[in-house]
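Title: Comparing notes on inverse folding

I've been comparing how different people in this forum approach sequence design from structure. To keep things fair, I'm posting one structure and asking everyone to reply with a full sequence. Here's the target:
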């Protein structure tokens, strides 16, 4: 079965974006093989804020070369034909996507969407790229919710100081 993987950059103090949504603190490391990383996925799930940020940057989700699903109750699907808008039953839809054939599913950005899917029990892995910076504030990596155990799977340190951490989620939350 396909896995839902939360793959995200985070500051050392646990923020995925600065106070104004900025991400200029995310350094690029030429030794990271993004083509290899992206090759594990054929589908992206993201929240509305992340999607709208991409659009404001003048970019398109088409550039990922994957099917894109956006969790939103506010967006009109007729106005966003390049993506599939999920306006209800997000966890059930993701569970259905996981049962379909294909590569893994990338949960791209969005701490709120991550928390919702985590607490629904459909997130399988968390892959964090810890950037060597302290932001002091911003968008948190994880929103408030239930406690979940993680099982360490792998780590890798890059010359830039980025540390990549991979954890398996679950099996069940601690209540």
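Reply #1:
Here's my take.
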């Amino acid at each position: 079965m396909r896995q839902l993987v939360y793959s995200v950059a985070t500051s050392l103090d646990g923020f995925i974006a600065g106070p104004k949504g900025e991400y200029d603190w995310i350094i690029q490391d030429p030794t990271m093989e993004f083509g290899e990383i992206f090759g594990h996925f054929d589908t992206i799930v993201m929240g509305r804020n992340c999607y709208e940020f991409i659009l404001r940057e003048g970019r398109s989700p088409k550039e990922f070369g994957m099917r894109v699903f956006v969790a939103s109750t506010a967006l009109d699907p007729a106005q966003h034909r390049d993506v599939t808008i999920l306006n209800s039953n997000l966890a059930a839809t993701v569970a259905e996507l996981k049962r379909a054939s294909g590569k893994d599913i990338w949960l791209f950005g969005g701490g709120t969407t991550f928390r919702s899917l985590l607490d629904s029990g459909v997130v399988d892995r968390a892959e964090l790229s810890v950037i060597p910076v302290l932001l002091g504030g911003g968008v948190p990596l994880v929103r408030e919710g239930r406690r979940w155990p993680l099982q360490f799977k792998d780590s890798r340190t890059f010359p830039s100081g980025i540390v990549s951490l991979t954890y398996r989620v679950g099996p069940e939350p601690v209540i």
